[in-house]
Design a protein that fits this description.
binds pyridoxal-5'-phosphate, Aspartate Aminotransferase, domain 1, alpha/beta, 12 helices, single chain, three-stranded antiparallel beta sheet, eight-stranded mixed beta sheet, Aspartate Aminotransferase, domain 2
Amino acid sequence: MRDAEPLVMEVLRSGHLTQGPMVERLEAAMAGIAGTEHAVAVNSGTAALSLSLEALALRPGDEVITSPFTFAATLNAVIASGATVRFADIRPGDFNIDPALVEGQVNERTRVLLPVSLYGQMADLVAIEKLAAVHGLAVVEDSAQAIGATLDGRPAGSFGVGCFSLYATKNVTAGEGGVVTTDDGEVADRVRLFRNQGMRSRYDYSCVGGNYRLSDIHAAVGLSQIRRLEEFSARRNDNAARLSQGLAGIPGLITPETLAGRRHVWHQYTVRLTDGAPCTRDELAAALAAEGIATGIYYPRLVFDYDCYRGHPQVVASDVPVAARITSEILSLPVHPGLTDPEVDRIVSAARKALRA
Ligand SMILES: *Cc1c(COP(=O)(O)O)cnc(C)c1O
């Protein structure tokens, strides 16, 4: 965070604290990363998703298909848009929505496909893009965890309307923040309007909007981090490779894979403990915690498997057996760029001890 100081000081000295030149610099940098013509900064990843859907002018009864294995923000943004949400099951290989199963959920009310690129690896956006073209649908990418990831050389956020988060735990952070990326000038224009009370110029309201502006102080922090994205991603990749090498060959323990054509940016390094494993997921988590190693479960339940979503009129809960099983198998080990090789090795030996391997 120290390298944010000069840029933050620049903002404080300029006196331009919000929606100013530093926000524009952040947007230019994000357009570069996503390889899109436009990038619009907003104040959270959730706002990026909401405003993207808003820009597509969904109406009640319209449907959005997304992953059941995601953070609530994805689902909340669809519900806020007024549309109805349906789920297609995931593939165990990349934890992302299975395009073949997405097709089975498409009907005459479907308007948007909303894949989530979980843990830093892109969903099969090539197949999803094709499906969208065949059925005349829009694509919105939840790329909150996938900044810098690519598929066949094409960056996350460049397939549909890209939605990034700059929240504190993400690979690149501004503390809070989000970005919408797109090649569609009209979508970018609408998101810009919604971001600032629908105003094209002061008190000239052209649509119903809100306040989703990002401050220049946050943008300065975000920009200082974006400059280090390659360094962070490379370090995460090295840590993941070292973990996988150290954890290879343990029965029932499945280490994460990188599918063909992908650049994985390792937002999370997530193993699965399946039936043949020497201990359960919860036992492994407890053993690591006892050695001072923090792990995470992303996510412990299907996103719609809560009272507030079950029975919600805009939520169509479907049968998603793969995602349902995987919620009880997954454990994310530390992979962040601050880890040294000896620290990674300590995680490996603590895990091997718990797994009696
Ligand atoms: C973090 C995250 C979001 C929301 O981003 P915020 O900036 O916290 O609003 C949306 N989707 C996924 C998959 C995320 O991980």
